[in-house]
Amino acid sequence: MPERKTSIAEAAERLSQPFTHTVVGQVDGYCAYLSRFEGTHKFHEHLKDEMYLVVEGEILIDYYDGPSVAVRQGEVLVVKAGERHRSRAEKKALVVMFKAAHLFAE
């Protein structure tokens, strides 16, 4: 069977700008995207759930009509479909996002 592993460290080296991403794995119609966070992303929502796994650093998920949630290294947060939110990081952070493959096309 062919090897299907990805080095997170090598993938992270390819991410030079904040809020850029690269696919590090795919299962059926879902992808694991490695992304570098720094600064503030815009408010948005999706038709499907998405999950954030913080690999390095800390991020905040701001809900449009609710609280901000800190997600630290080694922690996971699921944002449910239809929840308007944005992500932000005061310092550089490395995050794996699990979401339907088509969500970055929205």
Summary keywords:
1 helix; mainly beta; single chain; 7 strands; globular; 6% helix; 106 residues; Jelly Rolls; 54% strand; 7-stranded antiparallel sheet
Task: Describe what you observe in this structure.
The protein has one helix spanning 8-13; strands spanning 20-27, 30-40, 50-56, 58-63, 68-72, 76-79, 85-100. By secondary structure, it is mainly beta. The chain has a single domain, classed as Jelly Rolls (Sandwich). Strands 1, 2, 3, 4, 5, 6 and 7 form a seven-stranded antiparallel beta sheet that branches. β1 (20-27) and β2 form a beta hairpin. The model has no long low-confidence stretch (mean pLDDT 91).
SSE inventory with pairings:
Blueprint: H1 8-13, E1 20-27, E2 30-40, E3 50-56, E4 58-63, E5 68-72, E6 76-79, E7 85-100
Antiparallel strand pairs: 1-2, 2-7, 3-6, 3-7, 4-5, 4-7
Number of helical segments with 4 or more residues: 1
Percent of sequence in beta strands: over 45%
Helix content: under 10%
Amino-to-carboxy terminus distance: 35 Å
Largest beta-sheet details: 7 strands, antiparallel
Stretches where pLDDT is under 50 for at least 5 consecutive residues are none
Q: Number of folding domains?
A: 1
Elements, N to C (H/E): HEEEEEEE
Entry summary:
The chain has one helix spanning about 10-15, and strands spanning about 20-25, 30-40, 50-55, 60-65, 70, 75-80, 85-100. It has about 110 residues and is mainly beta.
